[in-house]
Amino acid sequence: MTAPKLGTALFTSAQARAIDQRATAELGIPGFELMTRAAAAAFAMLHERWPVAERLRVVCGAGNNGGDGYLVARDALAAGLDVDLVALGEPRGVDAIRARDTFVAAGGEPVSLATWTALPPADVLVDAIYGTGLNRAPEGDARQAIEAMNAYGAPILALDLPSGLSADTGATPGVAIRAEATATFIVHKRGLHTFHCEVAGDIALHTLGLPETLFDSPDSHLLLPGHLPPRPRESNKGTNGHVLAIGGDHGMGGAVRMAAEAALRTGAGLVSVATRDEHVLAMNAARPELMAHGVNGPQALQPMLEKASVLALGPGLGQAAWGHALWTTALDADLPTVLDADGLNLLHAEERSLPRIVVLTPHPGEAGRLLGIDTKAVQADRFAAVREMARRFKAVVVLKGNGSLIASAAGEVAVCPWGNPGMASGGMGDTLTGIIAALLAQGCNAYEAACLGVSLHARAGDVAAQMGERGLLAGDLLEPLRRLVNGLDA
Fold first, then answer.
1. What gap in Å lies between CA 105 and CA 210, rounded to an integer?
2. Is 403 marked as binding a ligand?
3. Mean pLDDT computed over 396-401
4. CB burial class (10 A; 0-12, 13-18, 19+) of residue 233?
5. Residue 95 annotated as binding site
6. 281 is in an annotated binding site
């Protein structure tokens, strides 16, 4: 595994622990040496980020994460900083005990949580309460310490991951540290990059000098920025695919138009729209490049299916008789399909065979309905949910949300590191549907189209949000999208 790949590779907590153990068993690196390296890397990061900080407050749990904290505190003392160390109980384990003793030998004195309000003001707080093993709500002193740190007002550096955040799922079963930055060690943990991952702040990976031979295949990986290659000079509209967007029941014409226009902006050669008669005039006036047709049922849709190479099925489709009839007819055509919105709701209501090439793009609520579980259960383990959907439907699945996940039927998973809260507005999912459909039409396979589509969509959203997240519209993504898909700075 090369260094760039390690920078995007995501591991489970069990994999991370196994790497720690192999470092000791195969290379003879003691656990205390790894702890010392982690503390040195974290303190260097702290000093670089907050160079004028004079007083630290380090909060240590009883495990090895607390051991990291004791050694950060020792290094800070050696650098001439003032340090208060709050110990949440006696350290457990040989390495953590040794770390505490080393801090005391350097002149430090652990204090209890009860002294919190009497301690001098601190410039930076260091979270060393829990490591990767916590998958429950923090309780007792740990909960109180997390609440006190969050309320304190000073920036927080988390060691390995913020206490209270699940290293595997990104869930926060109870309170969690809200860090400004996180120093994570050896490998990226996958929970740092989805769901409630924003509590980690800026994340820096410190591999602690371990060789690549120790690392197994990762559980998943982060997406990298990408774009389509330049077109051959002899290209024509017929060589770049024909997307047919199907949807737009009464009052929902905007949804299918956004999907169709996004497909155009992503480079599809031709884009047709099958929608209600009432929407055609407005579409032709606003975007004449779209070939909008009023269809009143399957017979009118069939000639359009014969000309299409890819379907974007579901935006504004509705679940009434009109939408259902178009849905069944479109699925029977067995064309490469992106299935979204009401296309997914209809699939929940009626089991159907899907096209051989299909991308499903559910939000957590839609995913829960399709899996027969509630939304909370989906979010409790997004990786398990997206893999199960991909396996069950033999499809590529995009599970939308903070840190969107893309899974293939073979079980590979990619995680999107871009996007922002301003994208939580109507029409964003419709634009994603059109983007992925256009990439399929231009020759990407389903997993490539989903990964690149999610990447382009989220990055375009970040560019558009430079003018502010509130008030961000789906249509605002189209201009940066055009630049990004061509590999240009947006």
1. 28
2. yes
3. 98
4. exposed
5. no
6. no
343 annotated to bind ligand: no
User: 440: alpha, beta or left, given left = phi > 0 and alpha = psi -120 to 50?
Assistant: alpha
pLDDT digits (tens, 9 = 90+) for 407-447: 999 999 999 999 999 999 999 999 999 999 999 999 999 99
Q: Are strands 358-360 and 181-185 parallel, antiparallel or unpaired?
A: unpaired
Residue 93, annotated ligand binder? no
Range 356-377 average pLDDT:
98
Q: Is 430 annotated as a binding residue?
A: yes
Q: How confident is the model at residue 35 (pLDDT cuts 50, 70, 90)?
A: very high
Q: What is the pTM of this model?
A: 0.95
- 340 annotated ligand binder: no
Confirm whether residue 429 is marked as ligand binding. yes
* Residue 168 annotated as part of some ligand binding site: no
Burial 434-466 (b: 16+ CB within 10 A, else e): bbbbbbbbbebebbebbbbbbbbbbbbbbbbbe
Task: Give the C-alpha separation, 438 to 441, whole Å.
Answer: 5
Is a pLDDT exceeding 90 seen at residue 122? yes
153 is in an annotated binding site: no
E strand or H helix at 348: helix 342-349
Structural domains of the chain ordered from first start: 3-219 (3.40.50.10260), 237-485 (3.40.1190.20)
Of 265, 282, 280, 319, the residue nearest 460 (C-alpha):
265
Q: Please indicate whether residue 490 or residue 76 has the higher confidence score (pLDDT).
A: 76
413-415 vs 405-407, strand pairing mode: antiparallel
CA dihedral over 343, 348, 352, 358, signed as positive or negative: positive
